[in-house]
Amino acid sequence: MTLTVRPLHPTLAAEITGVDIAAGVDAETAAELEAASNRYPVLVLPGQTIDKEQQVAFAGLFGPLELMGRNLKEDNYTSKIHKHLADISNVDPAGKVYSPEDRRRLSGLGDSLWHTDSSFKRVPAKYSMLYGDRLPPDGHVTEFADLRAAYDALDDTTKAKIADLVAEHSIMRSRSIIGFEFSAEEQAVLPPVPQRVVRFHPGSKRMTLYLASHASHIVGWPVPEGRLLLLDLIGHATQPHFVYRHRWRDGDLVWWDDRCTMHRARPRENGNAREMRRATVSDGVSTLDQPNRMPELAA
Fold first, then answer.
1. Are the C-beta atoms of 64 and 125 separated by less than 8 Å?
2. Digit-coded pLDDT (tens) for 32-66
């Protein structure tokens, strides 16, 4: 396959054409895609027609996939969701749009906060690959923020201040912001985990912030002080020049690097069906077990 890379944002996003996921992707093409993602951590592959198994097979080329057998948005696991796919739809297995009071819908509203997928898990995400199977007629938008460029733009004093900080992340924290409460059983499934605030991104050999609405506080700091710092950093990282806004089309597959981006869904459709599904490539180990310095600066 011959790939064409068309930038959609100076540092953050590019459209990739010349890839037919359904036909299969060879090792050389997969390597080219990963190299492109190191330059542009949000890749848009338009015009794809793929089923669940093809999406899983494609994502699996890039590492071990997260299991999605326990979905906190639902009371029970359902056959509608593949074990390696998160259901980002607003319809039930019968195709009916969720009611305004449905807990799955209410929890999903938290996706409108700036976040990084799976930062609330001990081993967080490396890549997310979201496929738009059926988009609503009134549109759907996801915004992405470039955390490498945001880190580069910090002053040296701030970089030194945050270099070794660790934040506690929990999905309970992000959902509590919008007033959604989990049961005690649900809370036990995913207890809070520590993650670094600053990471080294090996593909681009650049430093990056690692932020999310899941981040509750800075470990070892007074909670109010840590939360103010996190809010300041998220505000800095989501300035308009760091952000790419993607308007979805049927057949788009959007791949993003969770290690160096944040994203958020924009206000949802008004009663129209949306069917999307996401495969997530695991990062393998906790951020605490990864470098948070440029190699030449590591002790």
1. no
2. 999 999 999 999 999 999 999 999 999 999 999 99
In a domain, 293, yes or no: no
Q: Are 297 and 198 in contact (CB under 8 A)?
A: no
Q: How many domains does the chain fold into?
A: 1
Whole-angstrom distance, CA of residue 159 vs CA of residue 181:
35
Q: Is residue 116 assigned to a domain?
A: yes
Query: Tens digit of pLDDT for each residue in 169-179?
Result: 999 999 999 99
Q: Identity (one letter) of the amino acid at 157? A: T
User: The tokens of 292 are what?
Assistant: 């948070």
Q: Whose CA is closest to 71, among 63, 61, 62, 79?
A: 79
Q: Detail the DSSP E strand segments found in the chain.
A: 4-7, 13-17, 42-45, 86-87, 125-134, 141-146, 166-169, 193-196, 198-201, 206-209, 215-218, 243-247, 253-257, 261-265, 275-282
Between CA 193 and CA 203 the distance in angstroms is 25
How far is 167 from 185, CA to CA, in rounded Å? 24
Share of the chain above pLDDT 90, in %: 82
pTM for this entry: 0.94
Rg of the Cα atoms in the chain? 19
- Domain span holding position 197: 4-90+98-288
Residues 139, 246: contact at Cβ < 8 Å? no
Query: Residue 297 carries which DSSP code?
Result: G
Q: For residues 143 and 210, give the distance between their C-alpha atoms in angstroms, rounded to a whole number.
A: 16
82: CATH = 3.60.130.10
